[in-house]
Design goal:
elongated, homodimer, 11 strands, six-stranded antiparallel beta sheet, DNA-binding, about 250 residues
Chain lengths: ~250, ~250
Amino acid sequence: MSQTQLDAVKLDGAGPVYDQIRRAIRDLVLGGTWPPGTSVPPEHALMEQLGASRMTVHRALVQLAREGLITRRRRSGTVVATPPASHAMLDILSIPEEVAQLGQLYAHEVLSRRDGRPSAELALRFGLKRGEKVVHLVTLHRGDDTPHVLEERVIHLATVPAAADGDFSETPAGDWLLKNSLWSQAEHAISAVSAEPEDAALLGIGSGDPCLLIERRTWNQGAPVTAVRLLYPGTRHRFVGRFGPYGPI
Amino acid sequence: MSQTQLDAVKLDGAGPVYDQIRRAIRDLVLGGTWPPGTSVPPEHALMEQLGASRMTVHRALVQLAREGLITRRRRSGTVVATPPASHAMLDILSIPEEVAQLGQLYAHEVLSRRDGRPSAELALRFGLKRGEKVVHLVTLHRGDDTPHVLEERVIHLATVPAAADGDFSETPAGDWLLKNSLWSQAEHAISAVSAEPEDAALLGIGSGDPCLLIERRTWNQGAPVTAVRLLYPGTRHRFVGRFGPYGPI
DNA sequence: ACTTGCCAATTGCATATGCAATTAGATAGC
DNA sequence: GCTATCTAATTGCATATGCAATTGGCAAGT
């Protein structure tokens, strides 16, 4: 725990002290100032730095640990957690992982790539502004050689400039982004559509067959990172979640 | 807070005291012993009853409040919360509410009802045993007179005997169950299917058009309560969720 | 080198205490 | 009856204190 890290924790004076501490650290984590693996200063150090009692600091840290942002171990200390790869219902699943969990052999193929300003039609489909430079990718993912999902994605170059030089034939764009960018917010939408003829051909299904369409947009601190449309053959996929009356279990 | 309620709280001696208290109360809530609206004994009472300090009791209650099981107000005390009507992504939404949120006028119609042992085909579709007595309902829900969703449901009479006398023409079965039964666990699956001709006709869409199929099964303490298949016209519906890297936000 | 044992750092837990904030219900005053 | 006020119950928060449990890393011994 360097001095830098200690100094980074700043209270804003709004609300209970333990919650100020909690939010301050949360923001450092979500904002990327403290990336996964960073050591969080020990309770004693925060206590002196912030002028709060150890129990108050403790309360903030315990809560953050329960929220999954940090992990704590006696003697070893507290470190920023690595975000879990998947969440209950639908998530920033890595598609290679998704396929591997089905016990299938993964492969993917970049069908097209175009960098630059989007066409009118593309801008409409992804809600882009005409001027924004993006990478536009179409990728087919396969499991055991049968088509698994058809992915169409845009990556915002303003937010992720490194994507211009990314090679997505080795690592699919989704996984590449997980390693090379940060995100703080995502939105999913799920709906059912009929397969267009050309999509159906790629997926090896009949034209007009039902598909699950998952659209996901991702931001970092308000700046758009990427948007993706995942088209799953409806008959071959389902998404499952478990709940209790008060929330996911 | 009656004596009954105080006596109901029993610790099991496993793990930290605050967690024993938390689990004891959680179980009373989830098990239905303390239904929504029940007063939870004040901290002082629990403290004496359990021989723990107030801060320890406090910690358990604060955590339960954060989990949404109870609500607390100064001076008024602590009461068991009413489960939220909807959760992030997909949930035990009341369909009338769902329609009302779209600003539409709700109506529904029970298309068929049969009580008794399931046919072979029905048992297969819902994973029932042939011997189990169930109520089998098909209901069409409308918003502003256009079909909203087609519901097919079975209710397990062994778990919810009162359903035999339920009248589902006034209150749809889903809402009736929310009031007249308990559930502790649910499982959702979401997939895309083509509309069968008869379903398409009822929903006013083309035969073979894509639909979102949501299948939900609900249990209480391991005993099956109900299972439902909700068929939404795919073009008219989408389900949206928001997430951060560490979970729903 | 390798093992063993010990020390100290760090978190986990519980208690006791005191005060602040909120507000239901009682009481007093009109 | 109605309103203003007071009182006390209840939760919210912070502190100080002490001990328990875990374990990284060092030191001593072989």
